[in-house]
Amino acid sequence: MYDALLVRHCAPTLAGLKTGSLFSCSFAQPKEMHSCLRHWNGQLYGKGLHVLPLCRRKGRTLIYLYRSSALLSDFNCKQTAQLLKQRHYPLPCPERCIAHLIKQLAHGVSFPHEIGLFLGYPPEDVLGFIRNPAACKFSGCWKVYGDVPTAQTCFDAYRKCTQTCCALLALGVGLEQLATAY
Q1: pLDDT at residue 174, rounded to an integer
Q2: Does a cis peptide bond (omega within 30 degrees of 0) precede residue 92?
Q3: What was the pLDDT predicted at 59?
Q4: CA–CA separation, 28 vs 36, rounded Å?
Q5: What is d(CA 89, CA 172) in angstroms, rounded to the nearest whole number?
Q6: Is pLDDT at 109 greater than 80 in this prediction?
Q7: In which domain, by residue range, is 76 found?
Q8: Domain count across the chain
Q9: What is the pTM of this model?
Q10: Distances in Å between the alpha carbon of 162 and those of 15, 26, 40, 61, 118?
Q11: Least confident window among 53-62, 113-122, 160-169
């Protein structure tokens, strides 16, 4: 059941098309969550993927699946680094930035919109959302403020990837086989 949830929400990250994915999951007990995270990390670590709980609220856990090499590459983008520095993230280390994000989620009054940078969203779209959420040009997997045709192509690729991965999982293909190594 949990593997299907992970694949449904994170297939593009598993396949190497996307830096990271988020989804909310309900676990009966913290012990069940820890067991599930150990299982996922055991299956995916060798593929360069990591699964972390970012926060827990009202019985639900926000889960983050990310590809560390892609996150490092994204953080090396000048515009991304500038946005994160303005928000006091400890660059260049992605793991320390994730720890800072976790603190922001735990103690912040508002949701940290820069989280899109941890998911591989274009920095111009993250900045556009932060500046003026109502000014988006298109909405799909995220709100687009910059290059609409490129975003639409990306959204289509994510949708097809998710359909394919979900179908393969239903046929018995495991997470480790669905994940692309980088």
Answers
A1: 94
A2: yes
A3: 82
A4: 12
A5: 41
A6: no
A7: 2-172
A8: 1
A9: 0.95
A10: 9, 21, 18, 22, 20
A11: 53-62
- Here the tokens at position 162 are 């998710």
The answer as to whether 177 is a domain residue is: no
Position 87 scores a pLDDT of 94
Residue 111 scores a pLDDT above 90: no
Establish if 168 belongs to a structural domain.
Answer: yes
C-alpha to C-alpha distance for 128 and 148, rounded to whole angstroms = 13
Judge contact between 118 and 71, C-beta under 8 A: yes
What mean pLDDT do residues 101-125 have? 92
Return the structure tokens found at 134: 């109502």
Cα angle 41, 96, 52; round to 5 = 25
Q: What are the φ/ψ torsions at residue 83 (nearest 5 degrees)?
A: -60, -45
Question: How far is residue 7's CA from residue 175's CA, in Å, rounded to a whole number?
Answer: 8
Is 178 within the bounds of a domain? no
What is the DSSP-derived secondary structure letter of residue 180?
A: P
* 81 residue type, one letter: A
Produce one character per residue of 119-141: b if its CB has 16 or more CB atoms within 10 Å, e if not.
bbbbbebbbbbbeeeeebebeee
